[in-house]
Amino acid sequence: MHLPFRAACALTLCALLANAATAPKGASKKTSPTNFTVRTWLRTMTLRDKVAQLLIMPIYGEPAHRRSAISKKYEHFVRDLHVGGLIVTGHSMNSGIKNAEPYAMAALLNRMQKISKLPLLVGADFERGASMRVNATTPWPANMAFAAAQDLDGVFAEAAATARDARALGVNWIFAPVADVNNNPDNPIINIRSYGENPAQVSKFVRAYVLGAHSEKLSPVLVTAKHFPGHGDTAQDSHLGLARIDADRQRIDAVELEPFRAAIAAGVDAIMTAHIAVPSLESEDEPATVSSKIITGVLREELGFHGIVVTDAMDMQGLAAMFSTGEASVRALEAGNDVLLMPKRAEDAINGIVAAVQSGRITRQRLDQSVAKVLAAKVQLGLSRKRTVDLDVIADQVDSPEDEERAQQVADHAVTLVTDQKDQLPLRHADNACLITLSENRHGQQGQRLIEEVKKRAPGMTTTSLDPGMSQADLDQVTQKTSGCDQIIVAAFVSVSAYRGNVALAGLYPDFLNSLIAGKIPVTLAALGNPYLARTFPNASAYVTTYSPTPTSETALAKALFGEIAITGRLPVSIPGVAKFGDGIQLPATHPPQKGL
Fold first, then answer.
1. Which single residue of 279, 404, 425, 546 could bond 553 by disulfide (Cβ 3.0 to 4.6 Å)?
2. 109-126: per-residue pLDDT in tens?
């Protein structure tokens, strides 16, 4: 396996520090190609250029006219400010998050690479593969589904596929895997993004992901474990405010830090910090991101990580509400971070750090340490040789049939039957059943694949799609419509979303669902997302969860409802008052799939 970027960057840094630009003329000229390129770049950079290399700024991966305001903004980041990289983010829309289209995104990133003085690092939160941010790519299930399926090989395969897809699209830095241990059922922002509540199990999946992503030697990427020192035991979304973990140091060591140790041992290239307060590690009530005790003391010195440390998005209120952009940027660098992700204003971040260097608050040597890591990573990724991608090969790379099949296999094996008081699964009289989907967005696609799959198998089944904007009168009509059904299946989509603050059912859904459950017709609740939903509706006749709202999970649920696949998933988390870690009713397949399905 190739030398991990973590080690490569560390070695490059050591060489750079040992061979400063002031070396005597008679000094040895032996140096690695990486060292030579980095030193060449450094000689061309002003102080502001060096600082700018530590910034990663957001970009929507969608077409924009070159004279449009958004296009000019991107060009300003790259051509004028000389930022070190970009992160492809989802575009917030009224109906949810708008993902990018593959060719448009790759073409835009190519244009940014061409106008940049130095090659750009391009990151993306590909936690569910490229499908997290890009349409027409393999819809891998959420992380918790892999744990429910107990499929380490599946995680390895997903990571390898994500590396290939990322490089084909112009992305070279993957902000995954999530190394948080989700041991708090009320966590509003980690939830299904985690591999579960058991630190040993989470560690195994994190390790498999790192090794899988690094196995693609022809498509090298930076791999990032997040969110240090662990965001799983919080009840606050750090996008909205400062979250806290009040566990003692012994518990932090045994639970939160274990997956990060595994990631470091596997050769992870980068670690992302969290905007959370951890009193047992830092007595001051401030985010871990700007704590030298946590970043330098724990991560660097105790855990021995010498790779790239990147902040979580700096526009999140867990950090931004406490400090100005300039001050937060200086404190993050002082704490031991190397890269600043999405500061509110790039100019403010650059000006703040430049002023800190000029005043002596931050030494030039400290600045150069982080800049050298960033530049070395670019060389190791091959960006000094080729920074753009070939648009013609995208169709042959992303969303391969093999990846689709593997993703579906994981989703199938993840389906977990938690309770079934009246033997509701598999469906016995499907044509007399009613299916109701509760989507999270008014104009989204959630539930469409499920309804299509159900209709293929039971054309006579009554199906209804609801959205959270519906009135009570609308929902009352739906209730009346179910009066002739033998059983009701409610498929509830509840995924994690930044700035929402919870993972509960939206709108009038809770009262509507409770009224159905209180009726005489048995209700099977299927959670496509948050597995803890059963706590709120414990009286449902049956409860099944897929841990993921993706189309692959919708298809898996349809197969399970009709007995076409064995139900073998096991809970990677405990559901208080309902089920324990590892629970899951095991059912064999009873009806082979019909021809053509």
1. 546
2. 999 999 999 999 999 999
